[in-house]
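Before relying on records like the one below, remember that each one covers exactly one chain. Contacts with other chains, cofactors or solvent are not represented anywhere in the record.
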Amino acid sequence: MRPGSGSRCVDLPRFDCRRRILLGAWLLAALTLLARAVEVQVVESSEWRERARMQQQMASAVPAPRGTIYDRDGTPLAVSRERYEVSIDADQLQDRVAVRAALVNLLGFTPRRAGELTDPARDWIVVPGRFEPSVRPGLEGLQGVHLRRELRRDYPYETLMAGILGRVVEERGAGGIEQNFEELLTGHPGRSVVARDSHGRPIPGQTVQVEAPRAGGDVHLTIDLDLQEIGHQALTEAITETGARGGDLIVTDPRTGEILAMVSIDGESAGTLSGINTPYEPGSTLKPFTVAALLESGKARLVDEIEIGDGRWTVNGRTLTDDHADTTRLSLADALRVSSNVGVAKAALVLTPGEQYEALRDFGFGVRTGVPLPGESAGILRRPREWSQPSPQSLAIGYEISVTPLQMAMAYGALANGGRLLEARLVSRVRAPDAPARHFPPQVIRKVVHGGVTGQISRVLVDVVDDGTGVEAQLGTISVAGKTGTSRVYGDGGYQKGRYFSSFVGYFPAEAPQLVIFVKLDSPTRGLYYGGATAAPVTRATMEAALAARQSPLDRGELLRLARRAPFVPRDRATETEPVRFAALDVTGGEAGPLSTPGDPVWVGPGEASVPDVSGLPLRVAVRHLHRLGFRVRVDDGGGGFTTDPEPGRRWAVGDTVRIVRTDR
């Protein structure tokens, strides 16, 4: 080594050089480990602590129940039900006998099936089914048994309300109220933490809820569940009897605009909403609005006579005909009463296109009602500039216009309440979580015509039911105002041969209307297809059942007063040799008392009838059968089965009372 050259590894023995390299590597590794340890324990300590916690704990969302949907009386129509999924981890089972006993005693499994579910050869088993919350206390303390909470939407009256309520699909509302009020009904989920073992499996009993779920808000509908059931039954029976493809029935309160029942049936499905989303040409049920426009404008009076000739009139290339032409001249009132196409269309000639259009528009046609349901149609009411030459005559008798059943029901509500078109109300109030309830009071959209006009129209519509085309809607001592309609079905490029919409719209009592009832049948195939023969009887059946219902929105005291003041005899059925018998309306109505008393003149002529055996029928059907025979009916309180007093088969005087007696006492 030269002086001053320094020490180098190459100048040392090979063994000493390797030792220095190895020592340097060890020192470098130690420094690296030390630096990493400082980084992990000081710089990244919080991150690693969180990772360790996550390995030992598992955070999960706690589902929140959706809000409840109620009918007008507080009956739940859509509720969230708590259910539990039960799983078994065979490796964790410490007391297999206790778990098997719980499966048998709490969940209802057979001992053999319980043994299969706890078989040690199986790893993780999800027990079939979902179980009530009552099973939770007996299961959650068992090692190896795991519970998972679920919330399922339950519809106790799904067959009656499917279309209105909608569904919940993948935790979101789909259709109906569920969709329209999604934000209100949806709750806020909570959060829980579950302790896990070294294999990542949850440890029973080691769950901590760190944030409680908050339930969604509630929606209260104007629907009366009893009337909804009555309407569903009446419409279903009519579809079966007439062979119709489907139909719609709507019941409203003309004083408030509330929708009390809305039933739509398409084939065998009651989950449709054709009452708001399927317009149709109304035909003769539109004629009262043409006459109302004439009276309101001052261009015609009900006593004005119209020349109808032989019941055929060709105008602007279109020929109108009448089915009931037995005279060459009719007053405007009689033209409406017998539903003369020629008479009403000729009378409408004095209206300008603008007046005719505005009158129909003011009654709500061509405009959505605003009912809070998705998919509502506005129908079709073209502006006058889009009309053809025959359009004024077609519109006068209900063609070249399409309306929804709800639009028609609300328009008749305006005739019933003195000329005020009300907003269609399906929701009475909503309540958001931690907030006061929000109410939706009745809203008047506009004053369409004066009360004097509607009074004149109502008197004619009473005549329609008394001795016109709507006699099948007569209701004993209570007067009914209404109008029939029969229109051809349009589709696939033209009018369908042999297919008709048969409809009837009525309100009662005519003097002080409490209900408007709309009925439409799609293409009846058995018997007569006219609205008076098919739809009007459905209206009568609905009114009868509404009167018989123990819970009813009707003011029974007012009905009694009207029945006593002006007893009604159907003129078309009264003859000197055939006594008239009709429903005596005295079903007990709770605190309001009976609708009639033994002294009321509620039937004409002597007679007896055999008391039928109605014990196997639904209560409302039984009451209707007894009413049709002319008996008064009293229903005893209580539930369960029933029979009649006097007993079935006994001859009983028409007009006397038959009691429906509970058999479970």
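Residues 631 and 655 are 5 Å apart (CA to CA).
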